[in-house]
């Protein structure tokens, strides 16, 4: 009898947070009550708590694999797609090849134009859990299944400097430099009075010539504004500019890439390799997010990046940390140049997982344990609510 999925459990992970990733939230926001606020600088909605959707798949041998995806906003929409759409079909499928299962589940609504968004997030959670289950059943690590067995280090870059003043942000970046981290990224919305150039000058002065300093532009500029900003920042030698303009504006992305001197990084909102195919020459660095792509699509994007001379530096949203663990393993297998390190969240929520990779002295240390290597501790279930 081929193995089948027998049980699909979906949980909402929710935990109050201490620090806002992009800095203070006491000004420049629209408060929407207990769950959400909107930041005025980019018009984007954010949850007040750490949230994600966690999935446990149990097969006919009794083995369990863990997956996770975005649950930042309307998490029950993702849960409904799993229980109502994907779950019944998944239980009928042969489990030997998780990538083939991804294709079969994607095919269900492809001709109706459901190619991304929440649908792909739900698919990512299942895909991560299937890869985990498959690898654990074979007694191998995820990176081994993807072609690179063994332990190893992967560079980590410090992401976000949540402090209220330029001096305090530079001090925070310096404190991470003192701990051995030579790469940092700061978000454009956190700067004082919109003075991006002053912010980058301050960081460069504080951190020295050799430090890698990236700027996340959070989709806030036109192509021409980005091209001008790149000129203005040339002396500060940004490590890369990220997400400069509207995520859907492929023509603007190509224009920016053709005219700026700094490397251009794109991709945290992509779901499938189709999102990358029209932008193969529009970026120097891809930043796939495991919570959107799952293992299968991050691997496909990674192979396209290798074929087109782009570096891989995965994005890291963290809920509980399961999809982060899968991202680290997959990135390691793909020989990623670096991985985002959400220093305000990683260890805090990761303490609710067994098997988390350490992140010290500028690098993640990737274990070679079976699957993606993590599973929730007993304490984690204080923050997990089972959804029907
Ligand atoms: Mg970003």
Commentary on this structure:
The protein is an alpha/beta fold and 388 residues long. The chain has two domains: 5-140, Enolase-like, domain 1, CATH 3.30.390.10; 145-377, Enolase-like C-terminal domain (TIM Barrel). The protein is 35% helix and 22% strand. It is built from twelve helices and 19 strands. It has helices spanning 75-90, 98-107, 117-138, 142-145, 166-178, 196-207, 223-232, 250-259, 273-277, 290-307, 322-333, 346-350; strands at residues 5-16, 29-31, 36-39, 44-47, 49-59, 64-70, 152-159, 183-187, 212-216, 241-242, 264-266, 285-286, 311-312, 339-341, 353-354, 358-360, 363-366, 375-376, 384-387. The strands form four sheets. Strands 7, 8, 9, 10, 11, 12, 13, 14, 16 and 17 form a ten-stranded mixed sheet that branches. A four-stranded antiparallel sheet has the order 6-5-1-19. It has a three-stranded antiparallel sheet with strand order 2-3-4, with no helix packed on it. The model has no long low-confidence stretch (mean pLDDT 95). The structure holds magnesium ion. Magnesium ion is lined by residues 216, 242-243, 268.
């Amino acid at each position: 009898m081929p193995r089948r999925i027998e049980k699909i459990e979906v949980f909402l992970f929710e935990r109050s947070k201490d620090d806002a990733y992009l800095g203070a939230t006491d000004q420049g926001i629209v408060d929407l009550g207990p769950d959400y606020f909107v930041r005025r600088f980019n018009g984007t909605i954010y949850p007040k708590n750490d949230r994600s959707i966690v999935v446990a798949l149990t097969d006919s041998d009794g083995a369990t694999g863990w997956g996770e995806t975005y649950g930042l906003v309307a998490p029950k929409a993702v849960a409904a797609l799993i229980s109502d759409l994907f779950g019944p079909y998944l239980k009928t499928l042969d489990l030997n090849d998780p990538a083939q299962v991804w294709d079969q589940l994607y095919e269900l609504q492809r001709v109706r134009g459901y190619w991304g968004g929440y649908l792909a997030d739900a698919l990512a959670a299942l895909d991560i859990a299937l890869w985990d289950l498959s690898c654990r059943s074979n007694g191998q690590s995820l990176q081994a299944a993807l072609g690179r067995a063994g332990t190893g280090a992967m560079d980590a870059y410090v992401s976000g400097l949540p402090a209220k003043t330029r001096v305090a942000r530079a001090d925070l970046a310096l404190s991470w430099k003192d701990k051995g981290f030579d790469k940092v990224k700061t978000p454009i919305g956190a700067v004082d009075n919109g003075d991006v150039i002053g912010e980058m000058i301050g960081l460069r002065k504080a951190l020295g010539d050799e430090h890698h300093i990236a700027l996340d532009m959070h989709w806030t500029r036109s192509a021409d504004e980005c091209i001008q900003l790149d000129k203005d920042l040339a002396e500060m030698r940004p490590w890369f500019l990220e997400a400069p303009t509207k995520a859907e504006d492929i023509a603007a992305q190509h224009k920016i890439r053709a005219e700026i001197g700094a490397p251009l990084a794109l991709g945290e909102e992509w779901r499938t390799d189709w999102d990358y195919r029209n932008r193969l020459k529009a970026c120097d660095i891809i930043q796939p997010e495991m919570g959107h792509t799952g293992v299968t699509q991050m691997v496909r994007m990674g192979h396209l990046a290798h074929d087109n001379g782009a570096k891989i530096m995965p994005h890291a949203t963290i809920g509980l940390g399961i999809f982060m663990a899968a991202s680290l393993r997959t990135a390691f297998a793909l020989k990623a140049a670096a991985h985002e390190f959400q220093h305000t969240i990683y260890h805090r929520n990761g303490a609710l997982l067994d098997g988390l990779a350490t992140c010290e002295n500028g690098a993640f240390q990737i274990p070679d344990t079976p699957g993606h290597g993590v599973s929730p501790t007993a304490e984690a279930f204080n923050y997990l609510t089972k959804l029907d």
